[in-house]
Amino acid sequence: VGFNSVYHLTDLPSFVSGKYVVLFDPQGIHLPNVSAANPGKRLDYVSSSAISLYSDQFLPYCGFGCDMRRPFSGTLFRFPLRSADQAATSKLSKQVYSENDIISMFNQFYDEAVFSLLFLKSVTSIEMYTWDANAIKPQKLYSCFIQSPANDIVFHRQAILRLSKSVKSSTNQIDSFSLNFSRERLCGTSLEKRTDTFYIVNAMASSSSRIGIFAANAAKEHGLHLLPWAAVAACITDGLAE
User: Among residues 151, 155, 166, 150, which one has the least CA distance to residue 203?
Assistant: First the structure.
């Protein structure tokens, strides 16, 4: 669940953000001086000598504007794929993933990327890259993005933040809008493009509705802060692939 799902792929996830690189080793077999109580490391890579001593381990982070010398204004994750040898002794998972497995996942995600963006509040694009061993930079394979995310689109996509303030309203609160998604895929030397339009409706039920009363009781009796919220989307473009 959540971040722990990465352990399906790897035994040693890590990420870079700001001036830090953080590595997780829940088995305590890859990093020095780690334990079940402290299963990882956080290094200030700007000042740490570890970066020069183990440059091969940190080289994969040198991309997308990160040079591992200055603080990086963003976040990059690294998930080294679990090999067959690692899977044989791993206590986390026996699943092995190859490069072809990941490419297959990329292909599947391309078909579903629009649906992943539908109800998000802030993310406006998803891009997928591969970085060949002898290439100087990664190559974009696919992208999916919202066309022209102007202020009114941002306003509608953040409806849950706005309408949640009226959760005690005696009337249902509804927000609806249309959204254009574009997808691009590199096929050999040509670029395949497609645009689909979705109509999205967000609704916050009134405090007197059955679901509103249920949410209020859940908060009062069990400390659960639920919102009587629902959202649906329908593609109004012909021929969207299922």
Answer: 166
What is the spatial distance between Cα 128 and Cα 138, in angstroms, rounded to a whole number? 10
The two structure tokens encoding residue 42: 């956080």
The predicted model scores a pTM of: 0.77
For residue 194, the one-letter residue type is: R
Q: Do residues 79 and 7 lie in contact, with contact meaning Cβ atoms separated by under 8 Å?
A: no
Residue 49 to residue 58: CA distance in whole angstroms: 12
CB 45 within 8 A of CB 19: yes
CA distance 22 to 140: 26
Give the C-alpha separation, 202 to 157, whole Å.
Answer: 9
- In total, the chain counts a number of residues equal to 242
Domain ranges in the chain are 2-97, 103-235
Q: pLDDT tens digits, residue range 132-172?
A: 888 888 888 899 999 876 778 888 888 888 877 766 777 88
Look-up: residue for tokens 């689909």? 196
- What the block records as the tokens of 57 is 């381990």
Torsions phi, psi for 179 (to 5 deg): -140, 130
User: Strands across the sheet with 125-130, in order?
Assistant: 125-130, 139-146, 173-187, 190-204, 229-235
Coarse DSSP helix, strand, coil percentages of the chain, rounded to the nearest 5 percent: 30, 30, 40
Q: Report the 10 Å Cβ neighbour count for 6.
A: 16
